[in-house]
Each structure stands twice: as structure tokens, then as C-alpha cells.
Amino acid sequence: MSLSIRNQIPGTVLSVTSGEVMATVKVRLTGGQEITAAVTLEAVNDLGITAGSVVRTLIKSTEVALSTGPVDGVSIRNQLPGTVVGVATGGAMAGVKVAVAGGELTAAITKDAAEDLRLAAGVEVTALIKSTEIALAADGRG
């Protein structure tokens, strides 16, 4: 299946913490970072996701925020350090490609934000992703 979601980073499930309706799934990405996804318990069960499962994390580019450093005092737990490798700007929006360990992320942010942050190739950034904005795809192994 082909998807329009450009941000797809493989990893291995470290743990699943189940609640009544939702579960948090901690994944070690191929680059070594850990990321947490909050998905429905039904999806976890349907996909057979358990510790050791191989998954792909799927993140829409519109759900990736950028900062010029780590952020304290915020509820967003997923903070991946990286380096800007390219910025494409249009009338209102900018697509920012960020190299992170083990892959690349694209963030769709406003052109004004990209300019205010002075984003350009080589700039160090932190990608911020809410756990509720991460989907998981299971590949059947694991």
C-alpha cells in the first residue's frame, strides 16, 4: 500500500501500556531514538503489536513542529534532534526537511515561522511530535 504520509521511520516496539480505550506504544527507531505513539487499544490488538514487533511510525508533515532546541515545560514527549537539510517555501507555507538519526522528517510549517526561526540547511533543530499524532503500521514480523 502506498501512502501520502512522507514521514515513515521503522522501529521496534519496546513496550505497550494498555488503558481502557487507548494504549501508549514505545518504539525504538532505527536511529536509536525512542518515540511514543498513543493509539487505540483496538488497533494494537488488530495489528498484533507487542514488545518486539517491527513497526513503521507514520507522521503527517503537518503534525511536526520545529524548535531551535529542546523544549522544557511542554507536554510533547517526542523531541527528536536533527539538522535542517533543506527548506522549500511557498506563498504561505514552508516544507522543512530534517535529518534525524536513522531517517529524515518533513515538517510543514508556516513560511513566517521558518523565517522567524531562520531555518536553513545546517541549522540544528528539534522536531516535536505529539504522541497522539503518530500512527503505526505493522509489517507482520515480530
Structure, described:
This protein is mainly beta and 142 residues long. Helix content is 9%, strand content 52%. A 5-stranded antiparallel β-sheet has the order 3-2-1-4-10. The chain has a 5-stranded antiparallel β-sheet with strand order 5-9-6-7-8. The longest helix has 7 residues. It is elongated.
Unreliable runs: none
Distance between the termini: 20 Å
The largest sheet is: 5 strands, antiparallel
Radius of gyration: 15 Å
Q: What are the secondary-structure elements, in order, as H or E?
A: EEEHEEEEEHEE
Q: What's the total count of β strands?
A: 10
- How many alpha or pi helices? 2
Strand order of the largest sheet: 3-2-1-4-10
Given helix and strand content, the structural type is: mainly beta
Helix content: under 10%
Broad shape: elongated
**What's the pLDDT, averaged over the residues?**
95
Strand-residue proportion:
over 45%
Blueprint of the fold:
Layout: E1 7-18, E2 22-29, E3 34-40, H1 41-47, E4 54-59, E5 65-67, E6 78-89, E7 93-100, E8 103-110, H2 111-116, E9 124-129, E10 135-138
Antiparallel strand pairs: 1-2, 1-4, 2-3, 4-10, 5-9, 6-7, 6-9, 7-8
